[in-house]
Every structure is written in C-alpha cells, then in structure tokens.
From TrEMBL:
SMART domains: FHA (SM00240). It comes from Actinoallomurus liliacearum. PANTHER family: NUCLEAR INHIBITOR OF PROTEIN PHOSPHATASE-1. Residues 22-72 form the FHA domain. Residues 191-238 are annotated as: Disordered. Pfam families: FHA (PF00498). Keywords: Phosphoprotein. The keyword Signal does not apply. This is FHA domain-containing protein.
Length: 238
C-alpha cells in the first residue's frame, strides 16, 4: 500500500490515511472507528501533511492516547510506531524513514516560565501517567496536596494559574489535557523507582548460635560450672 496507513491490531484491518485529517474514536461518525469501551466517541485525530503524519489527542477521553507506551498530546509519528487510543492498539506504516527525532512534538515553541512550586505541582500531577502501568488519570488536587504537604486549596490555585499559562481551556478532563501538554513539552520526566523496604520495615535478624551469639561476633565464653550445679544438655562439667 502506498502512502501512510494505520493497522488496527485487534482486527488486522488496514486503512490508508488519504485525507489530511482523519478522526479516531468509537462514535459512528468518525473516520477510523474502534469498537472498544475505553475509546471515546471522538478520541483523537490523525493529521497528514504530505508523507508525514502526526497524532493529536483531543483531551476528551479519560483514557488518553499513547505512542509506544508514552502519553502524548501531539506527536509526529514514525514508521512502525504503536499508537494506543485507550486500550485499542494501532500500528502506523508507510511513513518515510528519515533523520527525524522521534520525540519531536508539534507544540508551542516556548514553554511558559514556571516557579519552583509550579514545577513541583506538575511533577506530582503527572507522576501516575509516567508510571509503567497502563494509562491512569493524573493525580487529583487532593493527592497532589498530600504529596506536597500543602492544602488542597493551594493546589487548586496553582492549577488555575497553570491552566492559564499553558492555555488549557475550560472543559472536561482539564487536568489530563494539562498533563499531556506538560509531558509533550518534556517538562516532566519519569522518576526513578522507589526502593520499598521489606514488610514491617525491619531487616531480617540473622539466626543466633546455640550459645545465643549472632554470626559475625565472637562466640561467648563458657562459664565454669559450680560443683553440684546441673550442666546444660551436651555440656560436661570440668
């Protein structure tokens, strides 16, 4: 097949991307229909510019859009990329291979200036979406407040300012759209995994020797047995 195309993994259906804009979703009026309950009626758009294609998440789904496992807002696609609309997986093909940075995003040229606290809020907001698990919604204001040890009202004020800075319009899934934009701009990176201590938080105590001492310590000297005193099992009186 000449030109870009999309292959729906579940059914094997292959659809050419001939139009400049093709809508993706579960609704009957979309161009590429995915019959999966995790997909919104109008979920995303695939935009073709000559031989190139990029995907745009419309921010209307609580399950979001991922490219090769990473949540995105907008992203230029490469040949062989796997795009997940909710839980529905599709593979892109027929895209010319070039020296294009796979992380290039069609996004605003300059990220807004952020305070240290705003960066903390965004990091906490996006942490669930950057996990290795299947897509989960970004953190709530209450979860962010608990994470940063501040009031929920303070977090909501920060979020309102961040919506304005990133020009996120009012509507459903506003936190998700903000998280997608922040991740697309590369402002938040996955955090290293946290080492979880053993259950109970205490290291396992090494076994003791029969005389009560621990391995790695010199054995306890034996006390002489007084005349007439019974000896411990296995010990002879001197």
């Amino acid at each position: 097949m000449e030109g870009p195309y999309i292959r729906i993994e579940e059914t094997g259906t292959v659809l050419p991307l001939r139009s400049e804009v093709m809508t993706v979703g579960r609704g009957r009026g979309v161009d590429i229909r995915l019959d999966d309950p995790s997909v919104s009626r109008l979920h995303a758009e695939l935009v073709r510019r000559g031989p190139y294609v990029y995907v745009v998440d419309l921010g209307l789904s609580r399950n979001g859009t991922r490219v090769n496992g990473r949540p995105i807002a907008r992203r230029v696609l490469e040949d062989g990329d796997v795009v997940s609309f909710g839980a529905a997986r599709c593979r892109l093909g027929g895209i010319p291979r070039e020296d294009v940075d796979p992380d290039v995003e069609l996004r605003r040229a300059v990220a807004p200036e952020l305070t240290r606290r705003e960066i903390d809020v965004l990091t906490s907001l996006c942490r669930p979406a950057l996990s290795d698990e299947a897509f989960v919604a970004p953190a709530t204001a209450r979860e962010i407040a608990t994470d940063l040890v501040v009031t929920e009202a303070a977090v909501k004020q920060h979020l309102l300012r961040l919506y304005q800075k990133f020009r996120i319009p009012e509507g459903a899934n506003r936190r998700t759209r903000l998280a997608n934009e922040v991740i697309a701009l590369g402002l938040v990176r996955p955090l290293p995994p946290v080492q979880v201590p053993p259950q109970g938080g205490r290291p396992t105590e090494p076994a003791r020797r029969p005389d009560g001492s621990r391995p790695g310590t010199p054995p306890q000297p034996r006390q002489p047995t007084a005349p007439g005193q019974p000896t411990a099992p296995g010990r002879r009186a001197s």
